[in-house]
């Protein structure tokens, strides 16, 4: 429908272009009115207003592409994980997590015990008789 009427397509593209330009221009003006000591003030280049309508379709296309790649990877992970869970039926993941958790916990307990001994050493030393 839109490809049959190029004038309508051009009007829609121009309207979207103006909408993004207006949004970027308004944000630029609001930011320019802020005082220099305002922590929310950013330093934007004036050409960022002009390039905003060009960059939006690029970022939108890249965002959709990344979304589909992530969805495909997630589906692949779910399928492989389900197949491995059914085929192996061993709690290898739980055994591995238990081993890693004990290793990290033992290291933390050892370090904390040494720190406590070091911190409490002035009070635990007995006065030696001369």
Helix content: over 70%
- Largest sheet features: none
Instruction: Output the radius of gyration.
Output: 31 Å
Strand content: under 5%
Comma- or semicolon-separated keywords:
130 residues, mainly alpha, 3 helices, 79% helix
Secondary structure layout plus pairing:
Blueprint: H1 6-33, H2 47-88, H3 92-124
Helix pairs in contact: 1-2
Describe it for me?
The chain contains three helices and no strands. It has 130 residues and is mostly helical. It has a domain at 92-130. Helix 1 (6-33) packs across helix 2 (47-88). It is flat.
Entry summary:
The protein is mainly α.
